[in-house]
Amino acid sequence: MTEVTPAQLDPMPDDWQRALAVAAHPDDLEYGCSAAIASWTDAGREVAYVLATRGEAGIDTLDPAECGPLREREQRAGAAVVGVSTVEFLDHRDGVIEYGTALRRDIAAAVRRHRPELVITLNHRDTWGGTFWNTPDHVAIGRAVLDAAGDAGNRWIFPELTEQGLEPWTGVRWVAVAGSSTPTHAVDATDGLDRAVRSLLEHRAYIQALTDQDPEEYVRGFLTGNVRETGKRFGGRPAVAFELLSR
């Protein structure tokens, strides 16, 4: 039987200046695409983060009232490592994010505030690669991001946003989905990988609750394995993959 060679991934577009990354929890972007974000900020592009929750339900041994502020601090520190200074939290409840108009409105408002050309989110499908079940939070956020990217440009969907001074923004050109099982594009991770490792390591309390493995060994092994695997479809260069959807 002839072995099918996966299609090579195209380089991500670079003719843009502002991006907005929207995820469910602190650490989602660090696991998913921070090596790419480091390369973009190095090139002078602006990237802002919006997190739906503070990850307050993420550590079994910590009460949410203590966990949320801790994970917020870890997220801000992790973002700073890859050149991101703007980190916002929408204060939806960790673990029980509901897809619906309230979530779409909050994300559309963020799009209008930051006026990005590129919006980034994580896998919104039911599984990770058909092997591991995805969480309801990731599914809800990913789907809401896809919808809100369009909502942000329509003044009649959430007219209260215009009344609040947030004018419609029709400038979103793409939504890039990290962690997709059907990627189309990639970003060279060579220069950003070490900072991606340091960025994820800022989530030390979360990682120590997640695994008994040495945190640096765990983080470097996880991220390096991912970018090397993607690199097989990107000319042999370590890379971060995205499914790029045009608007």
UniProtKB/TrEMBL annotation:
This protein's record includes keyword Zinc: yes
Pfam families per UniProt: PIG-L
Highest taxon listed in the record's lineage: Bacteria
Enzyme Commission number: 3.5.1.-
Enzyme superclass (EC): hydrolase
Keyword check for Hydrolase: yes
Molecular function GO terms recorded: hydrolase activity
Keyword terms: Hydrolase, Zinc
Name used for this protein in its record: PIG-L deacetylase family protein
Species whose genome carries this gene: Streptomyces chlorus
